């Protein structure tokens, strides 16, 4: 496989990008940081935004380490508050932070009830927005956020 024109290899435990000249970048966080610094797609990202992205990449490691529902709920509450007036985690467009946080939070959202998704409405809004990009979702399942269709647009009378 390739990523941004570079050779990408992965195993169950690691991912490695061949960046040329015999150099390789291993590990999802290191790979994300490398791509953020070198890819044309992220060229216009300010230094401040890049640093914020790196902070969220570190926070993602904390999310990955969560072992119980209570800790997951605390993180969701924190993220919900943070996203209250934001569409994305950093700046006004999708970043590496959004992509990796989405993948880390998928296992948490997978087990949430509709009530909990409503309770964490801001992070749910963000998650649902991000998950609709098939390129980002990849093999992860599309999770439901609406119980039933409230209005079909047709009249029954």
TrEMBL record:
Gene3D superfamilies from the UniProt entry: 1.20.1050.10
Protein's UniProt name: GST C-terminal domain-containing protein
Gene Ontology terms describing biological process: positive regulation of DNA damage response, signal transduction by p53 class mediator
Pfam families from the UniProt entry: Arc1p_N_like
Gene Ontology cellular-component annotations: aminoacyl-tRNA synthetase multienzyme complex; cytoplasm; nucleus
GST C-terminal domain segment(s): 29-150
